Automatic annotation (TrEMBL):
Protein name per Swiss-Prot or TrEMBL: Ribosomal RNA small subunit methyltransferase I
SUPFAM superfamilies with a match to the protein in the record: Tetrapyrrole methylase
One annotated GO molecular function: methyltransferase activity
Keywords on record: Methyltransferase, Transferase
Native organism: Variovorax gossypii
InterPro entries: 4pyrrol_Methylase_sf, 4pyrrole_Mease_sub1, 4pyrrole_Mease_sub2, rRNA_ssu_MeTfrase_I
Length: 257
């Protein structure tokens, strides 16, 4: 089979309002071209089939789907991929792309934002390249880049480090390690947390970081309630930071010079 006869793997971004009470209109966060391309796909790989169908229903209201929801072929990534991640190369995703080898375009979805960026999906992208499939990333919101751009921190040298440890002692040590790296190299350090632990993480950051270190928190990006605050830790301490986070909204944290 030639490459032209194979389907493509489309990386389809999702809105950043997953789990939020309020949802932003899709056309406010994603280009019409992305929504139209997604509407033409009938085979999907996702984290959760239920939320994938909910997203497809929202797309259908803007760009009619090529097949009814009941006829969409939706496969879920294994649960262990969600828990441990799939960026290490230990999961073989090639069987999930059988439809693409048969000529069907396949869409890869995460719960929010761009799949394979701060979310599962890397294994599927690697498998697509191994199988000789064309990989097409579609345009849409990526919370990490939106937060970085709005932070005023170094956008020329930055790193995303995932989640910080939940144990208080380990988390404090990791915060100090990342701060030392940021202050020495100038590299902005970005990380995330489960929304209901946002307040605890912010409190730990404000208590642990040096007073001249700059801390940025971007929450609810692309929503009407979006808020970005970027100040020195000294200013955060003066403003009772625990009152500035909404535990229902996803947030991106960043530290730097």
């Amino acid at each position: 089979m030639t490459q032209q006869e194979k389907g493509k793997l489309y990386l389809v971004p999702a809105p950043l309002d997953f789990g939020c009470e309020a949802q932003a209109p899709l056309q406010n966060a994603l280009p019409l071209g992305t929504l139209q391309t997604a509407a033409g796909i009938t085979h999907w790989i996702c984290e959760n089939a239920k939320s994938a169908r909910a997203y497809l229903k929202r797309i259908d209201a803007v760009a009619p789907l090529a097949a009814p929801l009941q006829a969409q072929n939706i496969q879920e990534l294994p649960r262990e991929v969600h828990k441990k991640g799939d960026h290490t190369g230990h999961f073989d995703a090639r069987p999930l792309l059988t439809a693409a080898l048969e000529g069907h375009d396949v869409g890869l979805l995460s719960e929010a934002g761009m799949p394979a960026v701060a979310d599962p999906g890397s294994s599927v992208v690697r498998a697509a390249h191994e199988l000789g499939l064309v990989v097409v990333p579609l345009t849409g919101p990526v919370s990490l880049l939106l937060a970085l751009a709005a932070s005023g921190l170094n956008g020329q040298n930055f790193a995303f480090v995932g989640y910080l440890p939940q144990d208080a002692g380990e988390r404090q040590a990791r915060i100090r390690e990342l701060e030392a790296l940021a202050l020495k190299s100038g590299q902005t350090q970005l990380f995330i947390e489960t929304p209901y632990r946002n307040a605890a993480l912010l409190q730990a950051l404000v208590q642990t970081l040096q007073h001249n270190t700059r801390l940025a928190v971007a929450r609810g990006l692309t929503l009407a309630s979006a808020h970005v605050r970027s100040e020195t830790v000294k200013s955060w301490r003066a403003a009772k930071p625990q009152a500035t986070t909404d535990e229902r909204l996803p947030a991106v944290f960043a530290i730097g010079r």
